[in-house]
Amino acid sequence: MRLTQPVQNLPKHIIIVPDGNRRWAEKEGKFRSEGHRAGVKRFREVSRAAFEMGIPYFTFWAASEDNLRKRDQSEVQLLILLLRHELKKKSTLENCLKNKTRFKIIGNWYDILHDNGLLHSIQLLQNHTQEFNQHFLTILFGYSGVREMLEAVRKICKSQPKHIDEEVLKRALWTHDLPPVDLIIRTGACEEGLNWSHNSSGFMMFLAANAKVFSPPTLWPDFTADTFRVAITDYSKTPRRLGA
Fold first, then answer.
1. How many C-beta neighbours within 10 Å does residue 16 have?
2. DSSP-assigned states of every residue in 81-93
3. Are 135 and 51 spatial neighbours (Cβ–Cβ below 8 Å)?
């Protein structure tokens, strides 16, 4: 489905929580690695669709801190390989330069993995795009909202400001450069036929305080760019009352 008319009332900042890669692979009779590879393909398509629609901030939760610490090391190494490959692709840099997209990775991943090769790839892309301000592509890798908030509190305590308000707290967050989250899309929400979703790791507890949440049962590898466009169109038609 290609939208023929511009969508009004777009979210400024959208976050994707891409659940379902492993369940998709199991359903399709494939290895888990194929599920993650299919998930990367969807990331490319959906992030491109978001920027084409005019959404300036697109944030993608690639892996939580628990994912990197607790999952089988072979799976963790695959996630690293896929991320490194995506960052080093010539087309990734070309697309960022063409669309004036600032790229950034946020999370505690280096303290967990100590991967200097991945660090170099991240720094290279971040340095090449740091001056852009049209589009903002952020990947959360080794991210925990609980750890982010704890680190912010420790930072504030260390600086001992005379007054603490919301702005002081926001400046201390890892995600201080990002605006409030308007919409969270968490795929693969319904497990075993239950109509329940869940939050994870205190996810962006400050920036996502007033976010709308869309939790379709669709597994991430099946969540196409067309599905995304429909979700954004539906969002644009729904008023946000923010407690009023």
1. 24
2. HHHHHHHH-HHHH
3. yes
Tell me if 38 sits within 8 A of 26, measured CB to CB.
no
The CB density around residue 115, as the number of other CB atoms within 10 Å, is 16
Rounded CA-CA distance 78/68 in Å is: 11
Residues with catalytic roles? 19, 67
Residues 6+ apart with CB under 8 A from 196: 189, 190
Beta bridge partners of 57: 13, 136
**Does residue 22 register a pLDDT over 90?**
yes
In CATH, the architecture of 13-234 is: 3-Layer(aba) Sandwich (3.40)
Instruction: Note the pLDDT tens digit of each residue in 75-123.
Output: 999 999 999 999 999 999 999 999 999 999 999 999 999 999 999 999 9
d(CA 17, CA 225): 15
Task: List the one residue out of 124, 129, 82 whose CA is nearest residue 103.
Answer: 129
What residue ranges do the domains of the chain occupy?
13-234
Distance separating alpha carbons of residues 96 and 99, to the nearest angstrom: 5
Q: Which two tokens stand for residue 203?
A: 């996810």
Q: How far is CA 177 from CA 52, 103, 204, in A?
A: 22, 12, 13
Q: Which residues contact 193 (CB under 8 A, 6 or more apart)?
A: none
Paired strand residues for 213: 184
- Cα–Cα distance measured from residue 10 to residue 58, given in angstroms and rounded to the nearest whole number: 12
Query: What is the value of pTM for the model shown?
Result: 0.92
Those residues whose C-beta lies under 8 Å from the C-beta of residue 68, and which sit 6 or more positions away, are 76, 79, 109, 112, 113, 141, 142
Pull the structure tokens for residue 18.
Answer: 């891409």
Count of CA atoms in the C-beta half-sphere (13 A) of 36: 17
